[in-house]
Amino acid sequence: MLTKWLRVLPFVGLLVAGICQAQTKTIHFTTDPEKPGGYLLAITQAAFERVGYKVEVEYRPWGRALEDVMTGQTEALLGAQFTDQRAEKMLYSQQIGQSEMVFFKLKTNNVPFKQVADLKGMTVGTIRNASYTPEFDNMAEITKEVVTDARVNVRKLLAGRIPLFVEKKAIIQSILKAEFAADADKIDFITPPLKTMKFFNCFSKAVPGAEQKLADFNRGLEMITKDGTLQAILNRGLHE
User: For the structural domain made of 9-97+198-235, what CATH number should be given?
Assistant: First the structure.
């Protein structure tokens, strides 16, 4: 009898290992380098963990991250805004966060601003392939200087090479505190914000299984919303 069980045990071990492996799946995200440690990532990890997924993230310049997911080279994009063009290539989750998009300037520079038209004739720092507002994006009278990293725009503003740049308020406040502490008090943002943005996770339509992973994420998001985990993440003060 003992000999029989010794023969069976290796097969039982393989079966248990296979079951455990099946219970934990991996999903691969990409996003821009500003998002490590932020609340969008924390929410995404918590929601997927509830439904048996491990989240892996690769950080790339935003334009490349977006292109890789739209073309199916990577299966998911963390923290994107909705556009009709993107929705042709990607499936959108339920909303996972929001933030204000604002213009940043030197405190010593007076820039009257109430609407986008007030910026005609000016140069504004932007991020490659980022979506702002149709009015801003399409206004030819505003010169957009494009970079791949928000930190470059901070340096250009401090050096007087641009009068303004546009970016998510919380991201720049975090960058200024962490990397430009000596000059942070020289920079201010303009009100009103250009817009308040809603963020979603996106799943490439070119990657098989996108519909199921979208459904699983939304299910996990509902679970962490109902049990208070989502609010706890927001209360920790993690920002994008």
Answer: 3.40.190.10
